Automatic annotation (TrEMBL):
<dbReference type="Pfam" id="PF00787">
    <property type="entry name" value="PX"/>
</dbReference>
<dbReference type="InterPro" id="IPR043544">
    <property type="entry name" value="SNX10/11"/>
</dbReference>
<dbReference type="GO" id="GO:0005768">
    <property type="term" value="C:endosome"/>
</dbReference>
<feature type="compositionally biased region" description="Basic and acidic residues">
    <location>
        <begin position="150"/>
        <end position="163"/>
    </location>
</feature>
<dbReference type="GO" id="GO:0060271">
    <property type="term" value="P:cilium assembly"/>
</dbReference>
<feature type="domain" description="PX">
    <location>
        <begin position="3"/>
        <end position="120"/>
    </location>
</feature>
<dbReference type="GO" id="GO:0006886">
    <property type="term" value="P:intracellular protein transport"/>
</dbReference>
<keyword id="KW-0472">Membrane</keyword>
<dbReference type="GO" id="GO:1901981">
    <property type="term" value="F:phosphatidylinositol phosphate binding"/>
</dbReference>
<keyword id="KW-0813">Transport</keyword>
<feature type="region of interest" description="Disordered">
    <location>
        <begin position="150"/>
        <end position="194"/>
    </location>
</feature>
<protein>
    <submittedName>
        <fullName>SNX10 protein</fullName>
    </submittedName>
</protein>
<dbReference type="InterPro" id="IPR036871">
    <property type="entry name" value="PX_dom_sf"/>
</dbReference>
<keyword id="KW-0446">Lipid-binding</keyword>
<keyword id="KW-0967">Endosome</keyword>
<dbReference type="InterPro" id="IPR001683">
    <property type="entry name" value="PX_dom"/>
</dbReference>
<feature type="compositionally biased region" description="Low complexity">
    <location>
        <begin position="168"/>
        <end position="182"/>
    </location>
</feature>
Length: 194
């Protein structure tokens, strides 16, 4: 049975400059779904990036009624733990509902949002073919830059050895390729958000 677990957690206040701050949240994904390039990932996103994602998903799936994001209230206080946690819960519920819809799961922007630290502009450029890298390349390269646990390298080597041992079927194009080998990927939050 396929599953997708998503957690929105660890809100942190980030300073943009001496006058402006914002909160970003860690998005942790663990899945065995064939829809995902990486089976485990972890990125940080801020509220306005969730707003962008919802708008893009809605414009590509006009017949689907997307779940709402938590409301952007003028009274939101980032120093109030209740406000921050209420927004965090709303963002998690939003992602949980989106990840249950097969049509939305086919949108590359969603995968870039969940599994890379690309900015919305870079995600758009990647999806529209204006970058030298593909969606899968972006996800793989983000994952390889943010590995934390040596066991993942062992799993990957084991997966490659399995593929190498079946060289006849690999050379025919029917065996497992590097893209089809699924190995866990735990990532650390990016040090800076673009």
């Amino acid at each position: 049975q396929e599953f997708v677990t998503v957690l929105v957690r660890d809100p942190r206040i980030q300073k943009e400059d001496s006058w402006h701050s914002y909160i970003d949240y860690e998005i942790f994904i663990h899945t065995n779904s064939i829809c995902f390039t990486r089976k485990t990932s972890c990125v940080r996103r801020r509220f306005r990036e969730f707003v962008w994602l919802r708008q893009r998903l809605q414009s590509n799936a006009v017949l689907i009624q997307l779940p709402e994001l938590p409301s952007k209230t003028p009274f939101f206080n980032m120093n109030n733990p209740h406000h921050v946690d209420h927004r965090r819960q709303g963002l998690q519920e939003f992602l949980e509902k989106i990840l249950q819809d097969a049509l939305l799961l086919s949108d590359s922007r969603l995968h870039l949002f969940l599994q890379t630290q690309l900015s919305p502009e870079d995600m758009e450029a990647c999806v529209s073919g204006q970058t030298k890298y593909s969606v899968a390349d972006a996800i793989h390269s983000f994952a390889s830059l943010n590995r934390r646990f040596p066991i993942e390298d062992e799993e990957r080597k084991k997966g490659k050895n399995d593929a190498d041992s079946d060289s006849e079927s690999s050379s025919s194009g029917l065996g497992p390729s590097d893209d089809s080998i699924s190995c866990g990927c735990k990532t650390s939050p990016a040090s800076e958000e673009s």
